[in-house]
Design goal:
Layout: H1 2-20, H2 24-37, H3 42-50, H4 56-62
């Protein structure tokens, strides 16, 4: 299960990185920041993002800057 969660988080991170031409580290910070700001578990947000709910642009717009 943990391996699946890591793979899904990596997919979501890649999606964000590609959408906004971010480094992998920056994309992860944005993903984590959005999850924390909205009280969501990181794994659930990653699964939802990979399924396109929410859209990558929504996550990038709603993530607090770091």
């Amino acid at each position: 299960m943990a391996l699946n969660a890591r793979a899904t988080i990596a997919q979501a991170r890649g999606l964000l990185a590609e959408t906004r031409d971010l480094s992998s580290a920056d994309a992860f910070q944005r993903l984590r920041g959005y999850a924390q700001a909205h009280g969501l578990p990181l794994g659930k947000l990653a699964r939802d993002l990979v399924q396109r709910t929410p859209d990558a642009r929504t996550v990038l717009a709603g993530a607090p800057p770091r």
